[in-house]
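Long-time lurker, first post.

We've been arguing in lab meeting about whether fe (ii) ion would sit comfortably in this protein at all. Half the group thinks yes, half thinks no, and nobody has a model to point at. So I'm putting the question to the forum: if I give you the sequence and the SMILES, can you give me back a predicted structure of the complex? Inputs are below. Any interpretation is welcome too.
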Amino acid sequence: MPDVEENDITREDLIKALNEDLSREYQAIIAYVNYSQVLKGAAYMNIADELEKHAEEELDHALQIANHVDYLGGMPSVVPKKVKTSEKAEEMLQFDLDNERETIRQYRRRVKQADALNEFAIAESIRGILVEEQDHLIALATALGIDPPNPGIAD
Ligand SMILES: [Fe+2]
Ligand SMILES: [Fe+2]
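Top reply:
Settle the argument with this. Predicted structure of the protein with fe (ii) ion, as tokens:
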């Protein structure tokens, strides 16, 4: 049985939440563009290449989410969430990991919300994005030498 929150969601709520997601995608694009070039050290060259690929995938996600906001009658956000910078490789990778965790938590909720509004195509698109975000999370955890954390699901 769907919970109360999903029953109560409106299209306006979904537009707002997707615009937050879009701002998070812009943040990810900027972070991956910066970190992929700033990251130094022989041990990190493979992951630097990987981060460049992430940047391109995040742009593709941003375009998909902007398309959904427009389709729902909203104006797609033009504002990224704040990007942290660091000169330290481990710190950069940790920032990315934290952002991917939050992104996955949010998209897991968004699939349920889109389903609740019978917007199954949006839910399907976000499921596809989730597959890539999970790959990003795994790549970053692997580079940090840790097990991928379980992001859970946003409230
Ligand atoms: Fe993304
Ligand atoms: Fe990502």
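For your lab meeting: Residues 9-75+88-144 form a domain with the Ferritin fold (CATH 1.20.1260.10). Residues 11-38 form the longest helix (28 residues). Whichever side wins, do check it experimentally.
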